[in-house]
Design a protein that fits this description.
It is built from 13 helices and 10 strands. The strands form 2 sheets. The protein has an 8-stranded mixed β-sheet with strand order 4-3-2-5-6-10-8-7, sandwiched between helices. Strands 1-9 form a two-stranded antiparallel ribbon. Helix 2 packs across helix 3. The longest helix is centred in the N-terminal third of the chain and has 17 residues. It is elongated, with a radius of gyration of 18 Å. By secondary structure, the protein is of the alpha/beta class.
């Protein structure tokens, strides 16, 4: 293996791990291909180069011993995704507070701020200096945000429902996991559909636009394919293969 090749992939990993740096989508793909090949033929090489036999989990149950999972990195922010997400948020043209809750290390909000989006990040257990220590529901009460951003909310937390029921929120973007073994919070969706989410999606087929409403509020929800396809989770196959179901990965909620 050429020393320059290793240095290139190690540099990409450093960009993934650091808050203040971003890899490109292509760099992430090349790193994944390199470390996956090593994992199959010579896992000890990955241990020697990267400190772990596997970097990217392929599903929840297979991910806990991988480097990115241990670092609590579930979504890999890339240059292309941040640019696309910043454009999506800017087009909302909202007045008021912009808030990311359950932000972890706050890398996504950090880079959105570099693109001119005035968003703050909060988390009950922040991982970096860029995140305010504050529980999600308390964050919603304190800041009364017009816009909320979340990523990979766990199924049991029920936070999605709290976000869509917060009166100040006019728009909400939910970045989700959509591959086997991952259970994601659908409490807000279920509050409107009053049925199991899987049944709802089957009933609606491949539609990428929904209307959720009750007596209190009405939301128009879209799943923009171009933005979703750039959302690179820390797992190999959802962003590597074009045939994967990208369309449920990013949900954009707009109150109507």
């Amino acid at each position: 293996m050429a020393d320059t090749e290793y240095k290139k992939h190690k540099r990409t990993l450093d960009k993934i791990l650091a808050v203040e740096e971003l890899p490109t989508h292509q760099e992430v793909l090349e790193l994944e291909s390199f470390e996956d090949s090593n994992h199959i033929t010579n896992p000890q090489l990955n241990v020697r180069l990267f400190g772990a036999p596997k970097l990217f989990p392929v599903a929840l149950l297979q991910g806990k011993d991988t480097l990115l999972w241990r670092e609590r990195i579930y979504n890999i922010e890339t240059v292309e995704f941040v640019d696309a997400l910043a454009r999506e948020i800017a087009e909302l043209n909202l007045d008021g507070e912009y808030l990311e809750v359950a932000a972890g290390r706050g890398k996504l909000s950090y880079w959105l701020r570099q693109k001119g989006i005035p968003i703050r990040a909060t988390d009950l257990v922040p991982i970096s200096e860029y995140v305010e220590q504050l529980e999600a529901c308390l964050s919603l009460s304190k800041y009364s945000p017009a816009f909320v951003l979340t990523s990979w909310l766990p199924q049991q937390c029920g936070l999605q429902k709290r976000v869509v029921e917060t009166e100040s929120v006019r728009a909400y973007i939910d970045i989700r996991g959509d591959y086997p073994g991952i259970s994601i919070d659908d409490s807000g969706i279920k509050a409107f559909t009053e049925m199991d989410l899987a049944s709802f999606l089957v009933k609606n087929g491949k539609k990428d636009s929904f209307i959720f409403e009750n007596r209190k509020t009405r939301w128009h929800v879209t799943t923009p394919k171009k933005l979703a396809k750039l959302a690179s989770p820390a797992a190999k196959f959802p962003y590597k293969r074009d045939e994967e179901p990208y369309t449920k990965r990013v949900w954009v909620w707009k109150r109507t």
